[in-house]
Design goal:
Elements: H1 23-34, H2 39-46, H3 50-63
Helix pairs in contact: 1-2, 1-3, 2-3
Length: 86
Amino acid sequence: MDDGNIVGVELTARGKMARSYSLDLRERVKQAAQEGYPQNSVARIFKIGKATVGRYMARLRKTGNLTPDKMGGYKNRSYAVGFTSY
């Protein structure tokens, strides 16, 4: 039965994404991409988005790892200099 959910992503009762893909899946995606499979094929094999594969590979190049960032919590916002509230 297809309930419209993205394969591999669990949704909360409110329909928001609950958590990141597992590190195991990320490692398998990395291995397939490094073996020379095109990103389109890797995405299709693991039933994830092509953009997700691209983000994983960019993250690997930039940081050297695939661990996901912390989700939620406080995010420090910086506003433009000279901004005044009304």
